[in-house]
Amino acid sequence: MQHDTARSWRHKDLLDISQLSLEDVLLILDTADYFQEINTRPTKKVPTLKGRSVVLFFAEPSTRTKTSFDVAGKRLSADTFSLAKSGSSLQKGESLKDTALTLQAMRPDAIVIRHEQNGAAEFMANRLECSVINAGDGRHAHPTQALLDAYTLREHWGMMAGKTLCILGDIAHSRVARSNVILLNLMGVNVRLCGPRTLMPYGVETWPVTVYDRVEDAVAGVDAVMCLRLQLERQQAGLLPDLREYAARYCLTAGRLALANAHAQVLHPGPINRGLEIAADVADAPESCILDQVAAGVAVRMALLFLHLTRKG
Amino acid sequence: MADLFIRGATLQGRTVDVLVEGGVVLDVLAHDPARCIEAAQVRDAAGLVLLPSLVDVHVHLREPGLEYKETIATGLTAAAHGGFGRICCMANTKPVNDAGAVTAFMLGQAKKSHPNGPWLHPIGALTMGLKGQDMAPLAELAEAGCVAFSNDGLPVLDSERFRRAMEYAADLGKMVIDHCEDPFLAPGTGVNESALTARMGLKGQPSVGEAAQVARDVLLAGYLKLPVHIAHVSCREAVELIAWAKAKGVDVTAETCPHYLCYTQDAVRGYNTLAKVSPPLRGEDDRLALIQAVNEGVIDFLATDHAPHAMHEKEHPFEEAPNGISWLDTALAKCWELVRAGVIGEERFVMAASTGPGERFGLGVNRFRPGDPADIVLFDPDAVWTVTPEALHSKGKNALCLGETLRGRVVAHYLAGVAVI
Ligand SMILES: [Zn+2]
């Protein structure tokens, strides 16, 4: 089975959800299912990618995503190498093009890139022969996060189509929201967005979503709520009056969550600001899937490394 | 004996013979195959379009200071091949052209490399260092040879200071050119705020940030009864404000650039840094509004905003790449697509790209009347060429139309009757 799936994977890179078909997504999630099972075994390591090398290039700090990819690679017996922005030549002002050429010369089998520039993953993919996996570029895309969110939801829901999910918070600056909107839409989930207008992207009316400005309306009858981390500097940028007012109006509290369907799931890409975008008791409640998301992250990233590194041609 | 005799060229639909003597047009006659005139130089121009040399009131040459992007010599060579007889260079060099000595240096470089033209006409800084605060020594700059003043690239936000600079420049008989953009509302991100850029995660420049300052400028010009020229108009709102001001009798002129007429924001897809320009490429509705405005004369001139950069600077992630498009080599061929398609009439094109700006800025104007300067382009409308870095004379290979196959090329260019290519 594994060989057949690998043969049918046709993408050199994973840059954005929009490049994937529903079939591709289901293949990733089903492959992740298989690895999730391996992750529950006492010995969590398989030799599948022995001898392959994966470079983790994180130009922007993100311990959790990087660790998740690192664990994923190691469980498949790949060699993982880290290239951080600090301590590398990037600090001395090396351009991304030169970094790409340097990496190319090292002939890795895949590069996982996190970068603060929109389009950085595509920039690298255009210049590298190996697979490039986007681990978040600017405000543009975070496809692996969206896939692990979908994986988590599918575990709880079984069927995705027809369910309703609300993404709550700073949509405008969120690559997580962008990738999730595309992916959940592709899977037949009804997506609602909620947040102050200053944190909504321009032209959001052209997105396949319903936009709400009151949390109470937005979460009414939904099957899941996804909270986004609020960057504290949004206040300095003049997008919000103050964080206290934000919390009062948009924090996902137990009272607000009670308006959703019974057993509605709560997701958060982390790290969370307790009491700001999500109440502490909600983050710790049984409905919270935040730790399931972390576990799913490893399985989904194992699936992605597997599919990209064993693809034929 | 005449200096130059051009036989059988096409001038706005007519086939003509042109006689040049002493650097000026002696006569333009209906073509007669039997006509035989003794001339030092005879040029058979059958099938070629006859145009007056183009006048570009908005280019960036990078000398002094950033010669790796472009020098005055390479810029003028590109101008010669692109059909431009006169180009006005903006002041954002290093150092900024805010002193007569800088202006004199620029003119000296031009004279050294291109004694017979194309001619360089520096535009002086409006404020010291383009900082938008202290007024530059406009009289000194005018005396040194600046033909206008502008803070191009860095708009003057302080309306009081802009007003005073307009007044001071008026005493010198010079025009103020404004780069319209409220930097708070529309920081120079090089991309239009739209659903597309929101999807790409890019911060956009909303068109109202441009229009808001156009509104200020035309209100000031009307109030002071002084002229103003609006640089690189890119959006419908700005067009509507300029039309309104003109209807009120305000002495305003405006320019737009080939990229706003030929492309839309879709060109940034795939994070294409060649399409990164400020003001940014807008939507199709804006493009159509600009074309209509050019045809109706609401937009008076075509200028290129030629902004050469080194390719390694454009080869960055989108937000790190500089704004600007290299145009001098390709603008005529690209705009001719619009003329050929009948989108813009040839007569209107010539007015917008040559005689109009020449007149407004007090430069030489060739209307092909006896005594006009013999600044003449022979353009082969059917010459097909592919835009490659090697095909460009500008050091700036950052042409938006790189890789495109264009139809039309300058095959001869005379300035004051002297061949410059
Ligand atoms: Zn400019």
Automatic annotation (TrEMBL), chain A:
Pathway: Pyrimidine metabolism; UMP biosynthesis via de novo pathway; (S)-dihydroorotate from bicarbonate: step 2/3
Record keyword Repeat present: no
Protein's name in the database: Aspartate carbamoyltransferase
GO biological process terms, semicolon-separated: 'de novo' pyrimidine nucleobase biosynthetic process; 'de novo' UMP biosynthetic process; amino acid metabolic process
Keywords recorded for this protein, A-Z: Pyrimidine biosynthesis, Transferase
Swiss-Prot/TrEMBL catalytic activity: carbamoyl phosphate + L-aspartate = N-carbamoyl-L-aspartate + phosphate + H(+)
Domain Aspartate/ornithine carbamoyltransferase carbamoyl-P binding: 12-155
EC number of the protein: 2.1.3.2
Lineage of the species this protein comes from: Bacteria, Pseudomonadati, Thermodesulfobacteriota, Desulfovibrionia, Desulfovibrionales
Family: Belongs to the aspartate/ornithine carbamoyltransferase superfamily. ATCase family.
GO cellular component, one term: cytosol
One Gene Ontology term of the molecular function aspect: aspartate carbamoyltransferase activity
TrEMBL record, chain B:
Obligatory cofactor(s): Zn(2+)
Metal-binding recorded as keyword: yes
Entry keyword set: Hydrolase, Metal-binding, Pyrimidine biosynthesis, Zinc
Gene3D superfamilies according to UniProt: Metal-dependent hydrolases, Urease, subunit C, domain 1
Binding site for Zn(2+) 1: 58, 60, 152, 305
GO cellular component assignments: cytoplasm
GO biological process: 'de novo' UMP biosynthetic process; purine nucleobase catabolic process
Keyword Metal-binding found: yes
Location of the active site: 305
Cofactor binding summary note: Binds 2 Zn(2+) ions per subunit.
Entry GO MF terms: allantoinase activity; dihydroorotase activity; zinc ion binding
Enzyme Commission number(s): 3.5.2.3
Pathway(s): Pyrimidine metabolism; UMP biosynthesis via de novo pathway; (S)-dihydroorotate from bicarbonate: step 3/3
Chain ranges of the Dihydroorotase catalytic domain: 48-237
Enzyme class: hydrolase
Top-level taxon: Bacteria
Catalysed reactions listed for this entry: (S)-dihydroorotate + H2O = N-carbamoyl-L-aspartate + H(+)
Binding residue positions for substrate: 60-62, 92, 309
The protein's role, per its UniProt record: Catalyzes the reversible cyclization of carbamoyl aspartate to dihydroorotate.
Protein name in UniProt: Dihydroorotase
Organism field: Megalodesulfovibrio gigas (strain ATCC 19364 / DSM 1382 / NCIMB 9332 / VKM B-1759)
